Siderophore transport system ATP-binding protein YusV (Paenibacillus konkukensis), 282 residues
Amino acid sequence: MVQERLYTNQLDISYGERSIVNNLNISIPSGKITALVGSNGSGKSTILKTMARIMKPSSGGVFLDGKSIHQQSTKEVAKQLAILPQNPVAPEGLTVSELVTYGRFPHQKGFGSLSKEDKDIVRWAIEMTGMNEFYDRPVDQLSGGQRQRAWIAMALAQGTDILFLDEPTTFLDMAHQLEVLKLLQKLNGEQRRTVVMVVHDLNHATRYAHHMVAIKSGQVISSGTPEEVMTLDVLREVFGIEADIIRDPRTGVPLCLPYELAHDRLGSASAPAQKELVAATR
């Protein structure tokens, strides 16, 4: 079996005395979109942060091209992977172009000014994310979706092959959620960027990811294609729900229609409300 470029090996993560993740071994497919899914508190964001070198593991390691990322310098890692955390905040008054410029810092020597190449990459990243008209607009004056695109542009300017995103659609309305997800799909399709994201919405995960990892209590319950992961057993075990799984009429990927809590989560399951839910989603 060929080892992917990015993987964990017997990874343990703790918060103080509290163990969050134990003996985690996962591989991230190169050139694909991977979605980490799980209920609140499952450890998926902790895993993402550790794989992106924001957190340090208590034991084990995260490896990129055979080298431990936690044994490399911050600057070297920043040339290889970029992360967009949850709800990033830019300094007041910072413009889109200034924010995107920050992505070039790992490539600069000392406190040198931007080179022509740096400036060209900044302009490309802004254009790639459809933010040209907001070039000089303060980030804090943008809508939620525009703000996310500006941060993604900054990550693109970093020039890495791997992009981590922690719940990139949180607090966005449906139109802006699709805007961000379609941008990530475009970056993957046209640039072959490896994208790893924590996703709350299971149907977003199956629609936009090639690979899914379902996590419960810091353990991988299932991983593989959306068809392999989106099963009734996984939905019960990971999310504690009963659901119907249907096929997306446009793409054929599996979609989840939850209708009640699983017995082991509720104690005694409530009466099914499947018909009402299906009618409401038409």
